[in-house]
Amino acid sequence: MGDSRAGVIARPARPQAGRGEKFPVDRHARRLYGDHDQLSRRRDRAMPPDPAPPPDPDPRPMVRFDTVTRRFADVTAVDRLSLDIREGEFFALLGPSGCGKSTLLRMLAGFERPDAGRILLAGEDIVPVPPYRRPVNMMFQSYALFPHLTVAGNIAFGLKQERLPKAEIETRVAEMLRLARLEGLGGRKPHQLSGGQRQRVALARALAKHPKVLLLDEPLAALDKKLREETQFELMELQDRLGTTFVIVTHDQEEAMTVADRIAVMNQGHVVQVGTPSEIYEQPRSRWVAGFIGDVNLIEGELVSAGPDGAVVQDRAGRRFLAEAASFPAAPGGTVALAVRPEKFRVSTTPPADATVNGLSGRVVDIGYLGDLSIYKVRLDDGTLVKASVTNIRRHAAREIDWEDAVWLSFAPEAAVVLGE
Amino acid sequence: MGRRLSAFNLVSLALGLAFLYLPILILVIYSFNDSRLVTVWGGFSTRWYVQLAEDHALQEAALTSLGIAVASATLATVLGTLAALALTRLGRFRGRLPFSAMIYAPLVMPEVITGLSLLLLFVAVELDRGFLTVTIAHTTLTMCFVAVVVQSRLGSFDSSLEEAAQDLGCPPLKTFLTVTLPVIAPAIVAGFLLAFSLSLDDVVLASFTTGPGATTLPIRIYSDVRLGVKPEINAVCTIFIAVIAVVVILASLVTRLGERHGAAG
Ligand SMILES: Nc1ncnc2c1ncn2[C@@H]1O[C@H](COP(=O)(O)OP(=O)(O)OP(=O)(O)O)[C@@H](O)[C@H]1O
Ligand SMILES: [Mg+2]
Q1: Do B179 and A146 touch (CB under 8 A)?
Q2: For the segment B13-56, what is each residue's pLDDT rounded down to a tens digit?
Q3: CB of A102 shorter than 6 A to ligand 1
C-alpha cells in the first residue's frame, strides 16, 4: 500500500537525521503539545531503515475511552464504550447515521462532556480540561472557516493563541500553505475559494498547531466523488509524513477501508468490532458487521462439528459445508450462519471437480453488468437468493452464462466465515 | 427575472413611486425656489441655503438632534445586541418567551403611549427633561429594532465557528470578541444606522420628553411650520432627507456585505 500512495503528494526531500523534523518545532509548542520527535513512531512502510513497528497489542494508547457514556435527553448516544487508539495510527470510526460517532469525536475534542467514564489522552484524564487547552485539533465537517479572516489568517489563528513570535507564525503559515498546496492563496477570503480549497484550508488550520491527535468529522463529505478519492490518498500521505494520530469519522465504508489502519465499527452507541480493514471485511464477528461492510450471502444452518480442521455447517436443505475457523460462535448443534462474500464464489456451468470445495447449485435469475464486474443473482434449489460477482477479464460479451442457466457456485473452506446469531 | 416590464407594470410602478416620492420631490424643488411664496416658482436660487447658514436656532436644533441620535443609537446598539445574544444563546431558559415578547413590544406600541409613560417616569424620579431624557426615550424605542436585526443574523450564525476557535486554543470570551463579534458586525452596524435614523426623525417621543434647551430638529421644524411654511424649512428638510438617504444606503450596503460573508462561512 505504501508504494501506491507515493506520488499523490510529492514527497519533499527529508534530511536523514531529522525524522521528526517535519516542522521546526519550537520550545513553546513542545511544552504545550509534547515533543513531536518522540511522538511520531511512524508506520511508514516505504522507508526501509525504519522497520514497521511490531503490532504490539497494547502499548500505552494515545487515546483511551474507558466505559464512556453520553446521554441526550432520551437517547444514549454513546453507551459504556471502551476503545483504544494507538499512537501514530490512522483510525476510523465507522457506523450508520446516528450511531454516536460524532458524539464520540466531540467528547475527545471537549465539546461534549461524558456523563460517565474517563477519556485518557497520552495517559492523562482530559475530561476536566476545556477544549481550548486540549492538545487535539479538529477539522469540522462544515470546515468552519472564519469568514472575516484570510486563508493565512485562518491558519495563523491557532498559533496566535499561543502568542508565538510573529516571524515564527509566518514561517509556519507558509509551511502549512505549502503542505496543503495552497501557495498563492494566503490572501484570499474563504468565500473566494472552491470547495476543495476550503477543505484544504480547514485541514491546514487544524494541523498548524501540531496536535497530538487530529480529529476529522466527515472531512470529505462535501466533495464530489473524484475529488474525494484524491483527497483520501492525500490524507493518507499526509498522515504518513507527519506521523500524527488521525481519527476520522465516516459513514462511508469504502472511505474507512481506504484510509484507515484500523477501524472501529459502531452501532447504537457501542463499538461492535475493532480491527484492520481486512480483518473487518474478511473476519466479521457478527451478521450485522458482515452486512454493514460490503455485500454478503448468509447461508443459515446448524453447526455440526467444530474442530481443528474447521467447522462443518449443515443448512436446512441438508447440504454440508466446510469452513475454516479459528473460533466458534456456537457449540455443535447451535444455529449459525455461513457468510460468503459474492466475489468468493466461483461460478461454473459444470459441477466442481474438486470434492473438497463447497458447492451450491441453482439457476441464474438476474445478471447485472457493472463494467469491471458482473453480478449474478442465483436462485438456489431451496429458493434462497444468492449473489455472486465475477470479474470480467475478457472484453467480449460472448456470455458463457445467461439468464435461466443452471449454474454451480463453489467456494473454498477459507472463503467462508461462521457467524453466530 | 429576464421578463420585460409590461405596460401595466410600468404604469403601476410609476404610480407607486410617484405616490411615495412626488411630495418629497416637490419639497426638494421648492427649496431651490427664488420666490418667498411657497407655491409660486420664481426661478432657481440657493438663497435659502445661504440664509440657513445664518439661522443659529435651526443649527443648534440640528446639532442637538445629531448628538441625541449618536448617543441613543450607541446605547441602543449595545443593549439591543446583548438582548439578542441572550435570546439566541441561552437556549430555552425559563421566561424566554415573555422576555422576547417584552423586547418586541415597543415595536408595536403606539409611540404616544411610550412617550407618555416615559414622561410620567421622568417626572416621578424628578429627572430634569432635556438632552438626557430624550436620549433615554430614543434608546428605549430603537434598541428593539437593533435586537431584531442582530437576532436574525445570530440565527444563521454557524456555531461551529465558535467551536473551531475554542478548538484552536481561544478561550470563550476571546472567541466572542475575535470571532463572533466580527462575523455579526455588519448586522450590528446596520442596527446602529437604523437606530440613528429612527432617532433623527422622531417627533412624538421627543415632544413628550424634551425640555428647554434641548429642541430637536424635527420639533423645531414642526413648530415653525405651524406658523406657516418658510422656504428655509424646505432647505432644511432637503438636507435632512439627504442625510437619512445616505444612512439608509449605508445600512443596506453593510447588510449586503454581511450576507456575502455569511454565505461563505
Ligand atoms: N446535542 C444533541 N442533543 C440531543 N441529541 C443529540 C445531540 N447530539 C447528538 N444527539 C443524538 O445522539 C445520537 C448520536 O448522534 P451523533 O451525532 O453522534 O451520530 P453520528 O454517528 O455522528 O451520525 P451521522 O453519521 O448522522 O453524523 C443521535 O441519536 C442524535 O440524535
Ligand atoms: Mg456525525
Answers
A1: yes
A2: 889 888 888 888 888 888 888 887 777 888 888 888 888 888 88
A3: yes
Contacts of A145 in chain B (CB under 8 A): 164, 264-265
Q: Is A306 in the pocket of ligand 1 (CB under 6 A)?
A: no
8 A C-beta contact, residue A140 and residue A205: no
CA distance A191 to chain B (A): 4
Whether A100 has its CB under 8 Å from any CB of chain B: the answer is: no
Longest dimension (CA), chain A: 77
Cell for B140?
428605549
Per-residue pLDDT of chain A (421 residues; tens, 9 = 90+): 334 433 333 333 333 333 333 333 333 333 334 333 333 333 433 334 444 555 555 667 999 999 999 999 899 999 999 999 999 999 999 999 999 999 999 999 999 999 999 999 999 999 999 999 999 999 999 999 999 999 999 999 999 999 999 999 999 999 999 999 999 999 999 999 999 999 999 999 999 999 999 999 999 988 888 999 999 999 999 999 999 999 999 989 999 999 999 999 999 999 999 999 999 999 999 999 999 998 999 999 999 988 888 889 998 888 889 998 777 777 888 899 999 999 999 998 888 877 667 888 899 999 998 888 889 999 998 888 999 999 888 776 566 788 888 999 999 888 999 998 7
CB distance A11 to A47 below 8 Å: no
**Domains observed in chain B:** 55-264 (1.10.3720.10)
Asked if A247 and A264 touch (Cβ cutoff 8 Å), the reply is no
Cα torsion through A160, A163, A166, A171, rounded to 10: -70
CB atoms within 10 A of CB B41: 12
Rounding to the nearest 10 degrees, give the CA dihedral for residues A134, A139, A143, A148.
40
Amino acid at A174: A
**pTM to 2 decimal places:** 0.78
With CB atoms and an 8 Å threshold, state whether B170 touches A137: no
CB contact under 8 A, B158 and A142: yes
B135-154 pLDDT per residue, tens: 999 999 999 999 999 988 88
Classify the C-alpha dihedral B40-B41-B42-B47 as positive or negative. Answer: positive
Burial of B120 by CB count in 10 Å (0-12 exposed, 13-18 middle, 19+ buried)?
exposed
For ligand 1, say whether the CB of A231 is within 6 Å of any of its atoms: no
Q: Whose C-alpha lies nearest to ligand 1, atom 17?
A: A102
For residue A216, give the C-alpha cell: 476529522
For B183, the closest of A130, A133, A148 (CB atoms) is A148
The reply to whether ligand 1 has any atom less than 6 angstroms from the CB of A81 is no
Say yes or no for a CB contact (<8 Å) between A138 and B158: no
Query: What pLDDT sits at residue B59?
Result: 84
CB contact under 8 A, A161 and B179: no
What single-letter amino acid sits at B21? Answer: Y
**Contact A267 CB / ligand 1 (< 6 Å):** no
Q: A99: Cβ below 6 Å to ligand 1?
A: yes
Among the bound ligands, name the one nearest to the CA of residue A77.
Answer: 1
* Contact yes or no for B261 and A191 at CB 8 A: yes
Angle, CA of A83, A86 and A87, to the nearest 5° = 145
> How many helices and strands, by DSSP H and E, does chain A display?
11, 20
Query: What are the structural domains, with CATH classification, of chain A?
Result: 2-135+211-287 (3.40.50.300), 296-419 (2.40.50.140)
Q: How far is CA A73 from CA A32, A77, A106, A292, B193, in A?
A: 36, 10, 17, 28, 43
* Candidate from B171, B183, B263 with C-beta closest to A132: B171
**A89 CA distance to ligand 2 middle (Å):** 21
The span from the first CA to the last CA of chain B, in angstroms, equals: 28
